[in-house]
Amino acid sequence: MPKFPNFSGYSPHLTSGSILDILLVSFLIYQFLLLVRGTRAVPMLTGVGALVIAFYIAHLTNLRTLDWLVGTILPYSIFALIVIFQTEIRQALARLGRNLTLSRSSQNGASDAFDDIVMAASTFSQDQTGALVVIEREIGLRTYIESGVALDAHLSYDLLATLFRPSAPLHDGAVILQKDRVAAAACFLPLSMNPLLSTQLGTRHRAGIGITEETDAVSVIVSEETGGISIAVGGQVERDITPERLRLRLAELLTRYAPQSVLSHPSAHPGAHSISQLTSNSADVLLSHGEDRALRSQERGGERGDQS
To answer: Is 30 strand, coil or helix?
Structure first.
């Protein structure tokens, strides 16, 4: 029979250092649980916990073969855990870096033009035009920018409306913003694999949520089916919000004050138009851009055929 230690009559002497140690460990455990809650890490941690319990039981009951097997595998399990939980570890380190960073210059730069985003989202919602806008904050999105078409254009309502026009060649994919610039369009984003997400969410919503799981970016999503506006940050999504609510949330996330005024309709904005009233010049520019890409692809294909 295993012998358990006798704690009768034992009264630990608590010092200020011991209390601080307990509080720090409790805080780390709490933050870890917050990090893995609702992710794929939960069932994996359950399996790891089962292995630890099996090792403890085998050690107490003197099961030599099982004790040897688990004891041999356990030292290498730390490397397996790093590979399995690489996403969660990356998120934790990114969150720690954000908390330790004092400068918020990138957030302030991105907040200067978010009113155009709100007006565009309002128009997309009324016309039921699908859209996905990603706002870069402190963590760079260069990897995802390079997956799309580089623009580096000044952010405006008209540009967003033109990019997401259903007939435009760049309307598929995400538009990534850097401060007050449109860095790229038609970008590919990682899809969220969170099993707790609603099955009603399509690829556009899962991509918008997925990028916020990997970085500290903010995603604004407009559903093509319902016209509902959603905002995602930190892997969490707030669905079916009003344009005014979107405006306040962006103001909060981008650290800019937003007065409690009624959001003006895009038609009241100077130079603003609905999607159906966009100038043909903007559409022609995008169409010619898409044709140039197709022509370059054909030329590359012809060169490969000649080489073969």
So the answer is: helix
| Domains of the chain with bracketed CATH | 16-98 (no CATH), 105-276 (3.40.1700.10)
Are 142 and 217 in contact by the 8 Å Cβ rule? The answer is no
CA atoms within 13 A on the CB side of 42: 10
Residue 171's nearest CA partner among 275, 304, 59 is 275
Going from the C-alpha of 218 to that of each of 19, 183, 231, 243, 284, the distances in angstroms are 38, 15, 7, 16, 30
Compute the Cα dihedral for 183, 184, 185, 188 and give only its sign.
negative
Please report which helix (H) or strand (E) contains residue 67, including its range: helix 64-84
Phi, psi of 43 (to 5 degrees): -65, -30
130 by Cβ neighbours in 10 Å (0-12 / 13-18 / 19+) ranks as middle
Residues paired with residue 187 on neighbouring β-strands, in sequence order: 174
- Amino acid identity at 275: I
Amino acid at 164: F
**CA–CA separation, 188 and 182 (whole Å):** 15
- Neighbouring C-beta atoms of residue 169, cutoff 10 Å: 19
Residue by residue, pLDDT tens for the chain (308 residues) are 455 555 555 556 778 888 898 999 998 888 777 776 656 667 777 877 887 887 788 778 888 887 788 778 777 877 877 887 777 777 677 766 766 654 444 444 444 467 899 999 999 999 999 999 999 988 889 889 999 999 999 999 999 999 999 888 888 899 999 888 999 999 999 999 888 887 878 899 999 999 999 899 999 999 999 999 999 999 999 999 999 999 999 988 886 544 444 344 444 444 444 444 443 444 444 444 444 544 444 554 554 444 44
